[in-house]
Amino acid sequence: MARAFYIRHAQASYLAEDYDQLSDLGYQQSKILGEYLIEKEILFDRIYVGPLKRHHQTFEKVLQVYDREGVTLPEPEYMDELVEHQGPETLRVLKEQLVKKYPHLAQFARNSNSDVKKNELRIFTYFMEKWATDALGIDHPPHLQKWSEFKSIVHSGIQKITGPENKGKNVACFTSGGTISATIGYALGMNDDAKMIGINGIIRNTSINEFLFSDEQMSLLTMNRTPHLSNELTTFV
């Protein structure tokens, strides 16, 4: 049976002007991931990389480790279906309306204390559940995709990855937490979008999520593993 390793990107630049850029710690995490994969002699027959910069940067750092050790990896194939959802972009557009509609969020939106990141995360977590279940009660920006539309994109990518051309192969997919959570939901036959988006919030950076697949059927084998990272190096954004 074939295996697909869905690997989340390393730590990006949370709350920075360009989130889609690995942090210094993210580069370190990516290098350690590559060293772990080499140590465990994990080889790939096919590699898919999502379209975002943080996907590319994570893969490139892993590739450097393989090259250093003289181990050849196949040329990566870039797959748009491994993109991340547009939840953060949607929140940026709707944040002011969201706070007006749900007044308890105002205390976090003011960021009156020093814990800005924690307050922003509280707003984001609340928004994501409402967004994924289509329960915002606010008109959705027409130029941004909904969670349901994103899931359809992820599912179309799964059909490609689990297709006959990958029969019996080890496949690596460098992607994002939302894509992984939607893939886990697909593999488990989940219908609860609130729980599915909740998985998104716990997927660790550079985590390994392993699936078995055959004849376009996919089963979850292991989830959210980071045996290569110490507690100090473990992050979620």
Describe the structure.
The chain starts with a strand and ends in a 12-residue tail after the last strand. It has 2 domains: 2-84 and 146-230, Rossmann fold, CATH 3.40.50.1240; 87-132, no CATH class. Helix 3 packs across helix 5, helix 5 (116-132) runs antiparallel to helix 8 and helix 7 crosses helix 8 (193-200). It is α/β, with parallel strands linked by helices. The protein is built from 8 helices and 6 strands. The model has no long low-confidence stretch (mean pLDDT 95). The chain is 43% helix and 15% strand. A hairpin with a 2-residue loop joins strand 5 and strand 6 (217-225). The protein is globular and about 55 Å long.
CATH architecture of the largest domain: 3-Layer(aba) Sandwich
Number of helices: 8
The structural domain count equals: 2
Quick one: CATH class of the largest domain?
Answer: Alpha Beta
> What is the number of E strands?
6
Mean pLDDT: 95
Poorly predicted runs: none
Content-based structural category = alpha/beta
What is the terminal-to-terminal distance?
32 Å
In sequence order, what are the helices and strands, one letter per element? EHEHEHHHHEHHEE
Query: What's the story with the biggest beta sheet?
Result: 6 strands, mixed
Radius of gyration: 18 Å
Shape: globular
CATH superfamily of the largest domain: Phosphoglycerate mutase-like
